[in-house]
Amino acid sequence: MRNDTSIRVLPPDVAAQIAAGEVVERPASVVKELVENSIDAGATDVRVDVEKGGRQSIRITDDGRGIPAAEVEIAFQRHSTSKLARAEDLDHIVTLGFRGEALASIAAVSRVTLVTRAEGEEIGTLMRLESGAVVDQRPIGRPPGTAITVQDLFYNVPARRKFLRTEATERRHIDAWVTRYAIAYPHLRLLLSHDGRETFRTPGNDDLREVLIAAYGMEVGANLVEILEDPGSGSPIRVRGFASPPSLHRANRGGITLFLNGRWIQDSRLTYAVIQAYHTLLPSGRYPVAVVMIAMPPDQVDVNVHPAKAEVRFSDGDAVFRAVQRAVRNSVTGQAPIAPTAFLRPAASGGRPWEGRSPVWAARASDAGESPLGQQPLLPQHAPAAIPALRVIGQVGAAFVVAEGPEGLYLIDQHAAHERVLYERMMAEREQGLPSQGLLTPLTVDLSPEAAGLLEAHLDSLHRLGFVLEPFGGSTVLVRALPAVLTRARPAEVLPDVVEALEEGRSMVDAEVEQAVMRRVCKRAAVKAGQVLTREEMAGLIQALEACASPRTCPHGRPTMIHISVDQLAREFGRE
Ligand code: ADP
Ligand code: MG
What is the pTM of this model? Predict the structure, then answer.
């Protein structure tokens, strides 16, 4: 007997539509899949023409290999691909496509027109499909290459069509994919038009910097710092790309873009590796902009996790994490320019940060000299980013040190600079346990029950940082010793600071909590604005800052110094 709930095999067109849904979610998925096919076909010129956010039509035209006349039909069948022959091939995929699903899926949910001519064939082929069925096929003339037009997307899947967002939203998704491929393949001459108007174009000269300027605009694109490969690492995981200097940041992590072997990927852990690389360099709650390109042997990564292929699995995820973090950190600490002075920067000049970098600096950034920073598990060792040797001129407002260097004038925030010096010193000494200074008479401090509980939960790690504390009943804590740097501080002021850092660190791992506490300690211990310094004290501070691995920002990410070059001074005085 048959009723409504009996099991039956779906009709092929329904099955095809369901399968298509996994690959084709929205117009941008069509753009992504077809541009990938063009790249796989060896194209150097790719044009994307979009009408009405892709609802009306999307056309991708390329100068690639083309599809032989005898293969145009099979290309549109499910699981038909020229890129993979055996199951073993899945272990070393070097093309963007390999599942043989895109053309079949797209054709199942739209009206497709293919015009193609294969290399070496005299004449091309035109083929039209509706809901996946061929409705027209004939020879046609065209130069070698392929043009695929996709019209009326989801015309036969009303539920899907209804879920399409506004034209502007669909456009944004398309723009995002085109931008990603432009960045990943700077040799590609890519052109994008919406409703007949060109909106984006890359020169195709293999210069990633130019693509970044086209994609992000001059202000961001020109200021990104190059992530240089570390030739000495000997690791099969290679990392290149561009990352923002600490002076450039965003409110969310959307500016972090990752590519793996030429494929755009989403990976929250690697995104975190990039964020972690900026540890203490950015104000809290701010995120870098970065384009990170990872290249590694294809057999150490599985890209076949999901039809959209944006998710990957690594055989050694930790190694990739470390490689990304180290590469980004090195480039940012090694090359980032000192915060330029906005008030002196000529408004419209394309002043590039790498111009005017001192030779000393450039040399230091590229040599492999290592400066152990103590045993921070998340912060690898890196080459020091020197600031040039500075000569102290004096102090302004009892808050800023004025100094002169080979490149002009430097204004140094004494408090921020001292915080940085103390922080790095503490990080370096942390492994042996930080020196403690016992109080002559132990003191009790009354706190809220929550605060006391929080301190109690962290007694051990606080001990490593130099705090000797004992629960004293109720919400009272007995202080026997403080970190030596805090000799002059009052326990009643220090403990609430520590509690605040612990509260902030609730969701952090232990090492990060310790760092948060250390930053508080440094803030408390550092010289304050308003404190008049002797010339010796200023020279000592500057010297200590010069020895820092990240001298240009305080541990909270604010700049420690402002640099005004001799050129800038000359310009301001109208001497140019
Ligand atoms: P996949 O890319 O996974 O192989 P597709 O369904 O996207 O699967 O494409 C099927 C086949 O059609 C490809 O393997 C390729 O041989 C051919 N093809 C698709 N697009 C193009 C193109 N623009 N130029 C040349 N060949 C193409
Ligand atoms: Mg494909």
Answer: 0.61
